[in-house]
């Protein structure tokens, strides 16, 4: 089979790899669609992120969907020909955190396409993928395989919503309108947000934010005063989803949050300096959010039931042979929201 393998920064290759056979409790999936994620781009552009560095060639990818081609022994509830979205999260189910129901913090997590451990966890950008049956969630007829492949990043934002708490009748600020920010808007709207304001420094992504559910967008590069106006009267927003990883976005969000509000940090960045006195005086809760677990099934259910529409986020689809062009396109925020790869079946 063919697979997309990263060797070093800017050294991405389509290579032949041996296909595996499903064992007990496993299925073989013909991968049909795979979305390029921010972490994939970090490996492609920089050879890693933070302290995580590539130390050996690694198959990239974790946002995938496809069709089941073979079943291992003992698999029930799935059949050859079923279309499925595949969760890339494979916790051990035995460690302290798994037993607490915090599987996203598993000590022995086997998350597709991760250079954190050595040897690296090989990813899902391959023509054939063997997965545990419990990772696979059926995709309804009429739902495109491209939508199904967006279940993973959508699950990330659903977990962020869980961290934020009830959003019914809440005023929400989203800073950073890349794919995760846009999906946070969709997730917040689905969970009853009363008003959503989104900010970025690029008009193209702000236009997308409006199309997927934001009530107002602000280009803070051109008109920061429009966001600053929300600071009047100790603030306006109840919840801030920060998806840019930018210190300025964090600080401006704290200024416009009202007392007893919540900031949920989605975007990854470096160290930041925050106005601690403001956090104390306004009793702001700052929360991190990391991956997901049960939210993956919820993401697929919401897509299947047409409770959300993720189709507008798909910018382009490239064949496997054009993987480098696909990654270059995905890295250009002026041109792209979500870029996917099409794999042979």
In short:
With 345 residues, the protein is an alpha/beta fold. Helix content is 26%, strand content 28%.
CATH topology of the largest domain: Quinone Oxidoreductase, Chain A, domain 1
Supply the helix-strand structural class: alpha/beta
pLDDT < 50 runs, ≥5 residues: none
Q: What is the ordering of alpha helices and beta strands?
A: EEEHEEEEEHEEHHEHEHEHEHEHEHEHE
Overall 3D shape: globular
Strand content: 25-35%
Gyration radius, to the nearest Å? 20 Å
Write the layout of secondary structure elements.
Blueprint: E1 2-8, E2 11-16, E3 26-35, H1 38-46, E4 48-49, E5 52-53, E6 58-59, E7 63-71, E8 83-86, H2 96-99, E9 128-132, E10 136-138, H3 145-148, H4 151-164, E11 171-175, H5 179-190, E12 195-200, H6 203-211, E13 216-219, H7 224-228, E14 237-242, H8 247-256, E15 257-265, H9 276-281, E16 285-288, H10 295-304, E17 314-319, H11 323-330, E18 338-342
Helix pairs in contact: 4-5, 4-10
Write up this protein.
Helices cover 26% and strands 28% of the residues. With 345 residues, the chain is of the alpha/beta class. Helix 4 packs across helix 5 (179-190). The protein starts with a strand and ends with a strand.
Summary keywords:
single chain; 345 residues; Quinone Oxidoreductase, Chain A, domain 1; Rossmann fold; seven-stranded mixed sheet; 28% strand; globular
């Amino acid at each position: 089979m063919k697979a997309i393998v990263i060797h070093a920064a800017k050294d991405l290759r389509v290579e032949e790899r041996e296909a595996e056979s499903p064992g007990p409790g496993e299925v073989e999936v013909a991968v049909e669609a795979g979305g390029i994620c921010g972490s994939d781009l970090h490996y492609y552009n920089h050879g890693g992120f933070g302290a995580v560095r590539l130390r050996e060639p690694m198959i990239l990818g974790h946002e995938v969907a496809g069709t089941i081609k073979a079943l291992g022994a003992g698999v029930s509830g799935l059949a050859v020909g079923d279309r499925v979205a595949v969760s890339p999260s494979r916790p051990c189910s035995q460690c302290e955190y798994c037993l607490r129901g915090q599987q996203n913090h598993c000590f022995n997590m086997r998350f597709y396409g991760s250079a954190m451990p050595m040897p690296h966890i090989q990813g899902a950008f391959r023509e054939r993928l063997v997965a545990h049956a419990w990772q696979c969630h059926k995709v309804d007829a009429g739902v495109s395989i491209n939508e199904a492949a967006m279940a993973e990043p959508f699950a990330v934002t659903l977990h962020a919503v869980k961290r934020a708490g009830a959003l019914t009748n809440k005023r929400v600020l989203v800073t950073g309108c890349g794919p995760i920010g846009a999906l946070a808007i969709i997730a917040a709207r689905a969970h009853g947000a009363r008003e959503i304001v989104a900010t970025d420094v690029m008009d193209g992504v702000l236009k997308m934010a409006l199309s997927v559910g934001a009530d107002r967008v602000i280009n803070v590069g051109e008109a920061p005063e429009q966001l600053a106006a929300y600071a009047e009267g100790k603030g306006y927003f109840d919840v801030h989803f920060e998806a840019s990883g930018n210190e300025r976005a964090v600080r401006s969000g704290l200024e416009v949050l009202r007392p007893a509000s919540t900031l949920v940090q989605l975007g990854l960045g470096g160290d930041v300096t925050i106005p601690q006195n403001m956090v104390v005086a306004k009793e702001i809760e700052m929360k991190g959010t990391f991956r997901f677990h049960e939210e993956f099934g919820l993401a697929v259910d919401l897509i299947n039931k047409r409770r959300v529409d993720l189709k507008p986020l798909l910018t382009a689809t490239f064949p496997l042979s054009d993987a480098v062009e696909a990654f270059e396109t995905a890295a250009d925020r002026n041109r792209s929201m979500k870029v996917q790869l099409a794999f042979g079946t």
